[in-house]
């Protein structure tokens, strides 16, 4: 252990740990939402941070790997009593230890902050472990590349290559079976979704197995093969195989299907349903929802039940309910809540689907529908039409009183739902 202790005290890892920890905490902190912490968002933020830091750690590890070549002490390793790989193993263990310390610091600081405000669920231990092992895999890959290709270009090229893998991971982290085998899980998991139980353990075992295989193969390649290195290689292959089998069992679909959450609902007509993660913000959410329901009461668009839903293709609610999406409790997010609820209640999302494939008349109808959506949502200034006739229509619609507006909405229900409003309706 003398060599490891020496490298731990004097190696480049000691200079790498603090910047990694500070940058990692900064990246995650920037991604945290206002209000109560949502644990899936927090853990996803740690994963994204690790995917940014991993290539940097790999580049430093590659720089450490070419150290003996730079100092022209390669030949001394061949004469080492403990074998030609002993010095390299000490360097690698020390690097891995320092990066692990940095990662633990990130997790402790970020998770402590989240625990103080979170009101629902908790951190995923397996996912946190899998992300950490993916980060350490970058270090192993970088170091072995530096040893195998002792060139001054190896460290920067390692950083570029690992960042390239990170970009591929970002672009294709869902829908592709092979994406589960990339180093760090950066799936964006929110309060409405959950990874399948096999995913994170599979990634943890896969990363650990690959790291052990790469290290063992390098040791064996240095000469003087012995039983421990060969045994480690077998263990690494076994771990990787188990991890691969778990990941392959997902068939490229890492998320659980169907609703895996429950709302807490209060009130009657409207009944307001909020995900438990944001339940502490019910007063603010209710204050944002009630004005919209008041503007639509007594019309065909009346909201009797408002349900918080996830964004994306599933941003819909069952018959009798109106969906809205909300990520956090920032004032700007709460202000947008009214507009999103307005879009959902008026059926205005049909305009978005028609926009790309319609004739030249649609932009006019789209603008007119947006005038209605913005006004009902309580944010008339959020949409500014370009056309002078549309501006005139917006001024007219904003001036009419609530009762007149309700009568107008009822009279033009079909045109609103079909996204076929005309200028003649605004007079």
Would you write up a description of this structure?
Helix content is 62%, strand content 4%. The protein has helices at 2-10, 13-31, 39-65, 67-71, 74-78, 86-117, 125-148, 154-171, 199-221, 227-248, 282-296, 331-346, 349-355, 362-376, 388-399, 402-411, 413-418; strands at 263-266, 271-275, 305-308, 322-324. The protein has 2 domains: 2-178, no CATH class; 263-425. The chain is mainly α and 427 residues long. It is elongated. The chain has a 4-stranded mixed sheet. It has 17 helices and 4 strands. The relative contact order is 0.09. Helix 6 (86-117) runs antiparallel to helix 7 (125-148). The model has no long low-confidence stretch (mean pLDDT 82). The protein starts with a helix and ends in a 9-residue tail after the last helix.
Spell out the blueprint of helices and strands.
Blueprint: H1 2-10, H2 13-31, H3 39-65, H4 67-71, H5 74-78, H6 86-117, H7 125-148, H8 154-171, H9 199-221, H10 227-248, E1 263-266, E2 271-275, H11 282-296, E3 305-308, E4 322-324, H12 331-346, H13 349-355, H14 362-376, H15 388-399, H16 402-411, H17 413-418
Parallel strand pairs: 2-3, 3-4
Antiparallel strand pairs: 1-2
Helix pairs in contact: 1-6, 2-3, 2-6, 3-6, 3-7, 3-8, 6-7, 7-8, 7-9, 9-10, 11-12, 12-14, 13-14, 14-15
In short:
With 427 residues, this protein is mostly helical. Helices cover 62% and strands 4% of the residues. It has 17 helices and four strands.
The sequence of SSEs as H and E is HHHHHHHHHHEEHEEHHHHHH
Structural class: mainly alpha
Low-confidence stretches: none
What is Rg? 28 Å
Strand order of the largest sheet: 1-2-3-4
Q: Roughly what is the average pLDDT, rounded to an integer?
A: 82
Tell me the count of domains.
Answer: 2
Q: Roughly what percent helix?
A: 55-70%
Question: What count of helical segments does DSSP give?
Answer: 17
Distance N terminus to C terminus?
Answer: 86 Å
- Beta-strand percent range: under 5%
Biggest sheet details: 4 strands, mixed
- Overall form: elongated
Number-wise, the strands total: 4
């Amino acid at each position: 252990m003398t060599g490891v202790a020496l490298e731990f005290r004097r190696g480049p890892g000691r200079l790498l740990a603090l910047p990694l920890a500070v940058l990692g905490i900064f990246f995650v902190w920037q991604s945290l939402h206002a209000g109560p912490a949502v644990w899936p968002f927090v853990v996803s933020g740690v994963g994204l941070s690790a995917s940014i830091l991993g290539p940097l750690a790999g580049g430093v590890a590659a720089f450490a790997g070419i150290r003996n070549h730079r100092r022209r002490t390669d030949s001394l390793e061949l004469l080492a009593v403990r074998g030609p790989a002993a010095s390299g193993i000490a360097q690698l263990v020390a690097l891995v230890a320092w990066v692990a310390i940095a990662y633990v610091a990130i997790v402790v600081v970020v998770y402590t902050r989240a625990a103080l405000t979170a009101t629902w669920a908790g951190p995923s231990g397996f996912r946190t472990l899998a992300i950490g092992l993916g980060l350490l895999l970058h270090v192993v890959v970088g170091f072995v590349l530096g040893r195998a290709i002792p060139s001054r270009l190896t460290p920067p090229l390692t950083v570029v290559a690992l960042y390239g893998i990170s970009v591929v991971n970002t672009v294709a982290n869902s829908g592709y079976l092979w994406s589960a085998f990339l180093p760090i899980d950066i799936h964006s998991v929110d309060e409405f979704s959950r990874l399948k139980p096999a995913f994170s353990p599979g990634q943890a075992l896969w990363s650990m197995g690959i790291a052990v295989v790469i290290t063992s193969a390098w040791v064996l390649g240095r000469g003087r093969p012995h039983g421990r290195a060969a045994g480690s290689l077998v263990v690494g292959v076994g771990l990787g195989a188990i991890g691969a089998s778990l990941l392959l069992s997902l068939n490229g679909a890492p998320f659980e299907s169907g609703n895996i959450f429950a709302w807490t609902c209060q009130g009657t007509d409207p009944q307001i349903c909020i995900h438990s993660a944001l339940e502490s913000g019910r007063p603010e959410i209710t204050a944002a929802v009630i004005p919209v329901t008041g503007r639509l009461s007594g019309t065909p668009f009346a909201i009797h039940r408002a349900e918080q839903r996830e964004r994306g293709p599933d941003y819909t609610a069952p018959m009798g309910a109106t969906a809205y999406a909300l990520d956090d409790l920032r004032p700007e997010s709460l202000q947008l809540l009214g507009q999103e609820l307005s879009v959902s209640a008026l059926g205005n999302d049909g305009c978005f689907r028609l926009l790309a494939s319609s004739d030249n008349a649609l932009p006019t109808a789209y603008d007119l529908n947006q005038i209605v959506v913005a006004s009902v949502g309580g944010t008339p200034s959020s949409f500014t039409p370009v056309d002078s006739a549309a501006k005139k229509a917006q001024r007219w619609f904003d001036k009419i009183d609530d009762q007149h507006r309700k009568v107008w909405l009822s009279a033009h229900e079909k045109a609103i739902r079909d996204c076929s409003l005309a200028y003649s309706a605004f007079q």
